[in-house]
Design a protein that fits this description.
SH3 type barrels, Alpha-Beta Plaits, 3 domains, 3-stranded antiparallel beta sheet, 7 helices, 50% helix
Length: 302
């Protein structure tokens, strides 16, 4: 018996195994083809948004093609195939729980639109901008940590998609891409408080007018979509009396990506206006002011 006849006899006796081998070869060819197409499109498409969406579309198409191929390929021997699949899934279900949950999480993210690339989110204690979502991981450009305010730290974080089922997700940009921010301004007792109030409100209204206008129209959509009460969009100023000074609390709405720069503008403009009042308004501090040294009388008797 020739070598070729031996191979044919083995194939006839192990038809299911041979089918699995052929399916694995086809699977590898499809995966390589998907990667080559993605690489080609990455070189040809200049727009970042279009390139990203096209690559994701090719990836999803490849997954769908593999599922259809698996169902149709084994439909002739579905009985034996289901037995093998049943034993196989029973073995990996326990060992690959996190992986399965991650894949389910990616499907949930895309279907429910929990977040998308470009959104700023906080999940599992990590805050950053989403730069990629694949079938297992969400990739983020980290914000904060050792860097103050909303600045990039420079670290790229890969987070399992399974975390969408394990805790809260804070989305800074979905539906309403604005956030409320505030800062405190200490004013010394004896200052012209009415003048100080007018200065703070005037500067806040000038700098924040565009954000206030844009946020009002979008806030109406949020109120109509969710069960939520209406909120104050315009800048507000609250005053409280402390042991050391009069505290001004300015609360305002701002674009979530411009929180730091807007706070800088507000503080700088208010500082300049207060300095131009020629002492009518004085910013308080926690320093100790020594008014008078008490006189000491010493009587020395011999």
């Amino acid at each position: 018996m020739s070598q070729l006849e031996h191979i044919r006899e083995w194939i006839d006796n192990n038809a299911l195994v041979w089918s699995m081998i052929k399916f694995a070869i086809i699977l590898i060819i499809i995966l390589i083809g998907v990667q080559l197409i993605r690489r080609y499109l990455k070189q040809k498409i200049s727009s970042t948004v279009v390139r990203y969406k096209t690559q994701k579309g090719i990836e999803i198409f490849g997954y769908i093609l593999l599922v259809i191929l698996a169902v149709t390929y084994f439909s002739g021997a579905i009985k034996d195939f289901t037995i093998i699949i049943g034993l196989f899934t029973a073995g990996i279900a326990f060992t690959l729980q996190e992986l399965i949950l991650s894949v389910a999480g990616s499907i949930y993210i895309f279907l429910v639109k929990v977040y998308k690339p470009g959104d700023r989110i906080e999940i599992n204690g990590i805050k950053g901008d989403v730069i990629d979502i694949d079938s297992i991981y969400t990739t983020m450009m980290e914000i904060g940590q050792w860097v103050s305010s909303d600045n990039y730290s420079g670290r790229i974080v890969k987070l399992s998609n399974a975390f969408v089922f394990k805790g809260p997700i804070y989305n800074y940009s979905q539906d309403f891409p604005f956030i409320w921010d505030e800062f405190n301004l200490p004013i010394r007792y004896g200052s012209d408080i009415e003048l100080a109030k007018s200065i703070v409100i005037k500067i806040a209204s000038e700098i924040l007018s565009e954000y206030t206008k844009q946020s009002k129209s979008q806030w109406k959509d949020v109120v109509s979509k969710y069960y939520i009460e209406d909120a104050q969009i315009d800048p507000t100023l609250a005053i409280s009396l402390t042991d050391n000074w009069i505290q001004f609390n300015l609360r305002y709405i701002v674009d979530y990506k411009k929180r730091r720069s807007v706070k800088h503008l507000l503080n700088d403009r208010i500082r300049l206006e207060i300095e131009n009042t020629m002492g009518k308004i004085i910013i308080a501090s926690a320093t100790v002011e020594l008014i008078k040294i008490p006189e000491l009388q010493v009587d020395i008797k011999s």
